[in-house]
Amino acid sequence: MRTAAERLAAIRDEIASAPHGADATLVVVTKFHPASLVEELAAAGQRDMGESRHPEARDKAAGLEALDLTWHYVGQLQRKKARQVARYAHVLHSIDSVDLVDALGSGETPLEIPVRDAFVQVNLTDDPARGGVAPDALEALAEHVEASPALRLLGVMAIAPLDEEPASAFARLAGHAERVRAIAPEARWMSAGMSQDWRVALEHGATHLRIGTAITGERPSSP
Ligand SMILES: *Cc1c(COP(=O)(O)O)cnc(C)c1O
């Protein structure tokens, strides 16, 4: 049976040899897994870790502070929890509303947290309950992030819908990425691709791959 470190090495090699893969950032999503797995991955050289649940993420980041890892928050962000999350998460992948941006820091309130890197999450489904901003509100949100003293806009993020070919979903996301770059030319990153669809995401311009189970193995418990 292969270990997480071996699966990590295999996926790293595959990413590195794929077209555009050399520049991609691999974020290993470790939600539901114990801190010991994060330590194992760190020992194998992995620096970027993804989490989606506060306070589980907070506790892992605090317990493993000495490892000096980069923590990516990829789950839905609640307005009320946003500042708490931004204390330990270096990169926020799920900014999806103007309210959320304001909760992280608007002009009046002094910042008690470092400026964080942020992706604007786009909803590629027709279901508003899914995370992400509706495509027609994307530009306004991106401008709001640009204007926030709390955030540095990296680009767009999305999760491929379950009922659509990932290729068409990620092609649409690439179009949204271009709309954001028209406003913010430096926001050239794209967070897309999970265990099942990262190869397709990379073909469509993903720069940040969020891979969980293909590296960590099955999660110990599910939501
Ligand atoms: C859990 C999760 C992932 C990783 O999913 P896998 O299918 O385990 O690779 C990626 N992105 C987000 C937003 C997630 O919640």
Top keywords for this entry?
eight-stranded parallel sheet; 17% strand; Ala_racemase_N; pyridoxal phosphate; PLP-binding_barrel; alpha/beta; binds pyridoxal-5'-phosphate; 223 residues; TIM Barrel; single chain; 9 helices
Task: Give an account of the 3D structure.
Belongs to the pyridoxal phosphate-binding protein YggS/PROSC family. It comes from Agrococcus versicolor. InterPro entries: Ala_racemase_N, PLP-binding_barrel, PyrdxlP_homeostasis. This is Pyridoxal phosphate homeostasis protein. This protein is an alpha/beta fold. The protein contains nine helices and eight strands. Helix 6 crosses helix 7 (166-183). The mean pLDDT is 95. Bound molecules: pyridoxal-5'-phosphate (PLP).
Unreliable runs, pLDDT <50, ≥5 residues?
none
- Give the ligands present: pyridoxal-5'-phosphate
Strand content: 15-25%
SSE topology string: HEHEHEHEHEHEHEHEH
Second CATH tier, the architecture: Alpha-Beta Barrel
Q: Compute the gyration radius: what is it?
A: 17 Å
Described by the principal axes of the CA atoms, the overall outline is globular
Pfam families: Ala_racemase_N (PF01168)
Protein name: Pyridoxal phosphate homeostasis protein
Family: Belongs to the pyridoxal phosphate-binding protein YggS/PROSC family.
Domain Alanine racemase N-terminal: 9-220
